[in-house]
């Protein structure tokens, strides 16, 4: 079993509470808009980090993290990107690939809206952890925490941090 802490859209701000909430996690996944490389470095020093760059990220992030990251965690095919849309409304850059070769878990950020949706057509769980940073229009900063056990995604928790 692999325990995952998922966040996005930190925009250069890391709440100390993130470290408490992700203490029991094996890995941290960041779905883009880190804000700066110091955020990524701080997270990577705490736990193994997987991430993708977002639209606000500069070359410091883009030289280390890709736009799209497709990988396997346990027996789950995962695709993480920053701007991906959501079931029935995937972005043009994602749409062709996701319909041809859907993952079991699709993760994106960008919208600052927490979403947990199951795409029945693709048999794919869609996760957007919302925004963990203070920049943006969201009212509450959010994270997700879950486990991957063989081919199952389990124990999904929504974590609300303080308001912006």
From TrEMBL:
SUPFAM superfamilies: Metallo-dependent phosphatases (SSF56300). Residues 3-150 form the Calcineurin-like phosphoesterase domain. Coiled coil: none annotated. Gene3D superfamilies: 3.60.21.10. Pfam families: Metallophos_2. Belongs to the metallophosphoesterase superfamily. YfcE family. This is Calcineurin-like phosphoesterase domain-containing protein. It comes from Parapedobacter koreensis.
